[in-house]
Amino acid sequence: MFDRFAAYQPQLLSLLRIVAGLLFLCHGTAKVLGFPAVEGVPSPGMSLAGLSGPLELILGLLLVLGLFTRPAAFLAAGFCAVGYWAVHGGQGFFPILNGGETIALHCFVWLYFAAAGPGPWSLDAVLRKNPYA
Q1: Whole-number Å distance between alpha carbons of 79 and 13
Q2: What's the distance, Cα to Cα, between the start and end of the chain in Å?
Q3: CA Rg, the chain, in Å?
Q4: Residues 49, 88: Cα–Cα separation, whole Å
Q5: What whole-number distance in Å separates Cα of residue 124 and Cα of residue 95?
Q6: I need a labelling partner for 58 at 20 to 30 A (CA). Which of 49, 73, 80, 132 fits?
Q7: Pick from 81, 69, 79: which is nearest to 115 by CA?
Q8: pTM above 0.85?
């Protein structure tokens, strides 16, 4: 039964990138644009928290579009790793207890996309005329 899904692996790779990118982008829009309004969002400024909004916004948009996917994903993975240890790591070992499960998951999803590429539904694939970019 599951062998049928294997034929859709490239498209599902793109779908995962788009959905994860939209979730990442939402963090950036909440911090930079105030939408959606989220309580406790860090204010912009020259700090890791202040830098996170613009990075999530720009990298999230690139990842949703599948443009410069590998470098954007690599930067996003590194940013998430630093953010996890700077914000959540000191609050305990387990991500479920320190509130860092989302950023930890994003870190490894973006690391995967840095290696795997964007999939066929991406601007990278269109620009390179390569369905798997």
Answers
A1: 22
A2: 28
A3: 16
A4: 12
A5: 33
A6: 132
A7: 69
A8: yes
User: Phi and psi of 22, rounded to 5°?
Assistant: -65, -40
Please tell me whether residue 99 adopts helix, strand or coil conformation: coil
Query: For position 42, what pLDDT does the model report?
Result: 64
State residue 124 phi and psi, 5-degree precision: -60, -45
Q: Which two tokens stand for residue 55?
A: 């990075």
Position 87, amino acid: V
Place of tokens 């911090």: 31
Average pLDDT over every residue of 113-126:
96
Tokens of 69: 């996917």
Note the helical H segments in the chain. 3-6, 9-32, 48-65, 69-83, 95-98, 101-116, 123-128
Burial class (CB in 10 A: 0-12, 13-18, 19+), 119: buried
Cis amide linkage into residue 36, ω under 30° from 0: yes
Burial label, 133 (beta-carbon count in 10 A; 0-12, 13-18, 19+): buried
Residues 53-68 have pLDDT tens digits of 999 999 999 999 999 9
